[in-house]
Amino acid sequence: MGLPSHLPRIEQFVASRFLCSCSRYYGRGSRQRQQVQHTSSRAYNVVPPARDSTEKAMMDRMLRVDHAGEYGANRIYAGQMAVLGRTSTAALIEHMWDQEKQHLKTFIELMAENRVRPTILIPFWNVAGFALGAGSALLGKEAAMACTVAIEESISEHYNSQIRELMEEDPERYKDLLELIKTFRDEEMEHHDIGLEQDAEMAPVFWLLKNTIQAGCKAAIFLSERF
Ligand SMILES: [Fe+2]
Ligand SMILES: [Fe+2]
Known about the structure:
Elements: H1 9-26, H2 30-40, H3 53-84, H4 90-113, H5 122-138, H6 141-169, H7 175-197, H8 206-226
Helix pairs in contact: 1-2, 1-4, 3-4, 3-5, 3-6, 3-8, 4-7, 5-6, 6-7, 6-8
Bound molecules: fe (ii) ion (2 copies).
One fe (ii) ion (FE2) binds next to α3, α4 and α7.
Cofactor: Fe cation
Subcellular location: Mitochondrion inner membrane
Binding site for Fe cation 2: 100, 152, 188, 191
């Protein structure tokens, strides 16, 4: 299905995201066409213009932490690929990483469009993310997958809490953003399930590894929302 050529760049991108991501859930039916037409009829794209300083602060916080999370996920998969890139697990990691690249690209575009700065901790997440990905992969494929399970569960829970917050605020006003976050949340859950299918729970000290990584995730989310 082609995309209307008159759409601005961000709408083209989001529409293409819906077309490729939602096809797994809804097939190539009328709902997709409605979503594309819906986005094209709005005066704004995905994130509505802030009505006041409170809404601006909420959107800044959400986009900044989501960008940081996707950036960190990209660095983790880069680290895993540096170690496991020539093994039979590489194709699966590459598949997940490709989706993370799209998530990150989306938030970079949304931040630029809404004049939101990234967290000042990006250089730290750059190093920490790669070290976590490579370090867990050095412990073995199962430990790399345990890392994936821990990270993806945390990101999914984080997206779920954002979905709840936006639903409580105004589901109609944030309809496009909610759709986007739900799509990404579903893909993070897919990554989580891949990790489990790939024997994450067979990793040595799985629960210790998982709980430690998730504590780190909570701290990363807390800091990235504020700085
Ligand atoms: Fe992601
Ligand atoms: Fe993910």
